[in-house]
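Hi U.,

Before I forget, here's the chain from the pilot set. I'm dumping it here mostly so it's searchable later in email.
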Amino acid sequence: MPELPEVETVRRGLMPVLQGAVIERAEARRPDLRWPLPENFADRLAGRRIEALNRRAKYLLADLDGGEVLIVHLGMSGSMRIEGAPVKGRPGLFHYPRGEAGRHDHVVLHLAGGASVTFNDPRRFGAILIVPYDRLDSHPLLRDLGPEPLGNSFNAAYLAAALARRRTSLKAALLDQKLVAGLGNIYVSEALFRARLSPRRLAYTLADGNGGPTARAERLVVAIREVLREAIQAGGSSLRDHRQVDGELGYFQHAFRVYDREGEPCSTPRCTGRIQRILQAGRATFYCPVCQR
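Structure:
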């Protein structure tokens, strides 16, 4: 499933084409994805201007004129594709134009000026919703989300306070979207490795006796931010389905230090460990049992 870096990469790729654009016509090629598309979906989008394109956790948020927001969730296999828009700095070239629509192209936004944006989702775990702007924060998908890990409100003091009473594993706690929004299996494993913290460590041990941050909490916040920023810069990680909006793969998978590296030597200098794979709550975790404590 796309995590924060993949969704942010998609947002940045879509911005030059979508932000400020007018939807001339919307095309729904099936009535549902994970859930039914909004009632009168195509009619409600026709003629609307996209005022801004934002992201919250793993959701894309397109602010529409008229006080509504288009929420797009990529699910497990969703992707967005731009066609008919010149590549920035290369006039006359276009983003992978195709003559025939793919069988998994479920929603197409035809924009004034000739460009189009297509939502493709082979497994149909994605979703597209339209909600009033003034109800966005209270929407069931968004209301319980924790702070953005790249935002100012996510810091060592917050993390320690949030973990202080948690007796679960540190890996499980960080995957809780109520604690911090947008983190997933890959980037939690990578951040824990950089912070030299075991995924098995109990979460509350990152807080001191007063609920304040320990040095471990400080290291972990720094590691989470570093991993996410590097992954965004690399266009995300392409393991199965993720592609950028121009069709290119993400490249951060080539920088993995532990994820999917079972049995390989640890990359920490002078460490003699080898990467192990364990299951935590049904999810694969990769870590070095020697230098992650």
